Structures are given as C-alpha cells and as structure tokens.
Amino acid sequence: MVNTERFIQQAVSEIRELTGDARVVMALSGGVDSSVCAALAAQAIGERLEPIYVDTGLMRKGETERIRQLFGHLNLRIVDAADEFLDALAGVSDPEAKRKIIGERFIRVFEREAEKTGATVLLQGTIYPDRIESEGGIKSHHNVGGMPLGIAFTQVLEPLRDLYKDEVRDVAGALGLPREIQHRMPFPGPGLAVRIIGDVTREKVAVIREANAIAEEELVEEFRPWQCLAALVGLGTGVKGDIRLHGWIVAVRAVNSRDGMTADPLEVPYPVLFKIASRITAEIPSVARVVYDVTPKPPATIEYE
Ligand code: XMP
To answer: Any idea where the domains of the chain sit in the sequence?
Structure first.
C-alpha cells in the first residue's frame, strides 16, 4: 500500500459506488480488520451499514461486553448464536470440517439477520494473507474458503483484500480508531475452536477461554507480542493434592510476526512462564499440565488447527 490516506479515499468511494443504495451487512468481530472495515463503511454509507456481532460461544472472555462498549454507537446488532454453533460442532474433530461448519453457520446467521433488514450486500474484512493461505490450500479461513457462496447476497465486498496486517493497523490509526483496536492482537474467525485440538465441547471452551485470558493478562501488557494464546492440546496425567488425575494439557504460545505468514516464538522469562503455569493450574482445576510452545512458523502454524 503506497499511501494510507489515498487508500482510505479509494476504499470509501469504492464502497459507496458498489453498494448503490443497498443495505450492507457485515460481521464486526472487534478485531482490527473488521473494525477498520466498519469505520470505512460507516464513512461511506452511514446508517445503511448494519454491523452484526455474532457471539459464537467461541469468543474470548469479556468480548461481548467490550464490543458493546466500543461499537454501541453504530447500528450494531448483537446476536447470541452460541448454542447454534456449539451444537453444530458437537462430535466433529476434523480441523477443516470444524472450520467449514463455523463458516457456514456464520453465513446462515448473517442471512437471517440481513433478511430482517433487507440487506443485500455482505462486507468482509478479509485481508491479503487470509486469501493467500486459502488459495494456497493451507487451510480454509472461515471468511473465505469456508463460505458457501451463491447465497442471498447480491455482492460480497472485501475492501481490505490487498492489505497486510500492519497496513490495516496504519489505516486504523489514520481513521482515528482507539489504540486498543489498532494494536489488538489478531484473533481467528473460528475463535477458540482452533485452539482446541479435536472436538469442541462447552467444557473445553470454558477451560480454554479462561486459560487464554490468563495468558493474555500475563503477556500482552508486558511483552506486547504480535499474538499470544493458550490451546487445549490433550489429556494427561497430573497430581493434585495426593490424587493422580487425568487433566487437560494446555499449551501457551506467544509469537512475534509481521503478517502472520511466518512467526518467531517469544523468549518469555522463566519466572513469567512459571507464573502462567501456576495460575492456569490453580485457577482451572481440570488442567493438569501447562507447556510453552517454542516452535517457529514454519514449520508450526500460529494456531493449533
Ligand atoms: P496460522 O495458524 O495459520 O495463523 O499460522 C496465521 C494468522 O491467522 C489467524 N488465523 C485465522 N484468522 N480465520 C481467521 O480469520 C481463520 O480461520 C484463521 N486461522 C488462523 C491466526 O490467529 C494468526 O493470526
């Protein structure tokens, strides 16, 4: 991207021209991509933008309240679809099948909501690396490969399609979005589902939501990683009190990256790792073991699925 201001002007006029007088629906996750997309569209078409936040039941701790605070001034609709997503995922362990189910659910929720308002255009915050990874067959990002096209929408617009993450952050700054949004860590569209290896249950989601909150509390402020996370990687033996028990194994990961295409693990000081492990095992009784992942990407991806 050559020039941030020029990009903003072009994107705003593109959205205005392409949408005509149609109502436009978009998924606002609260991440930097969708927030920038919403801000551009709000400039372009004002009240005709219908941002929808879907609570998939796979979001981070406190996310729904945060969204309400940040975007309550827009025409925002908050949809509680947690049961719908979690029921659809029940018993499904294959990573691609999970992504497809989530992508499809998203679209169904949009369609339903759009029907209520007569929106015919779908706006998405897809960025360049999402397209590359989907087209390269690495995995289907929920907002590209997982989406069954040919639905009720007459158009799908992706104004950020050629941008890298750091460019999106520059645009966020130029648009005057809060710093908290501009520097927010990426969070995958399929949410905590890709931080649970194998099938997704309500119990696993509750465990990994809490573990992610702890990892973020201990790492974000102090180390400003590009991304950090906790993933549920299996079951193992542990001992609590004097009882041997089967408990969850949680992997903590913190990486630096430019655009998510490659990543280097953060050298987190041992006392911090020790504190994270102590907190996770103490605050989440069903966790028996915590490990820290030191694998770069490649060969490992940032997420666990
Ligand atoms: P991976 O795990 O492929 O992740 O190294 C690279 C970056 O992309 C995010 N990610 C996703 N984002 N839908 C998204 O919107 C997805 O399906 C998805 N999978 C991974 C990941 O969090 C990291 O920032």
So the answer is: 4-182, 201-293
Provide the whole-model pTM.
0.86
CATH H superfamily, domain 4-182: HUPs (3.40.50.620)
* Eight-class DSSP state of 263: B
Q: How far is C-alpha 127 from the chain's CA centre? A: 13
User: Of all protein residues, whose CA lies closest to atom 18 belonging to ligand 1?
Assistant: 188
Which distant-in-sequence residues (6+ apart) come within 8 Å of 141 by Cβ? Answer: 99, 126, 130, 133, 134, 189
d(CA 163, CA 123): 15
The pLDDT, as a whole number, for residue 106 is 86
Counting Cα atoms < 13 Å in the Cβ hemisphere of 252 gives 30
Which numeric CATH code is attached to 201-293?
A: 3.30.300.10
Alpha-carbon distance of 203 to 189, in angstroms, equals: 20
Coil, strand or helix at 304? coil
Report which ligand 1 atom has the smallest distance to the Cα of 303: 2
- Residue from 303, 304, 305 whose mutation best tests the ligand 1 pocket (most atoms within 8 A of CB): 303
Residue 72, pLDDT score: 85
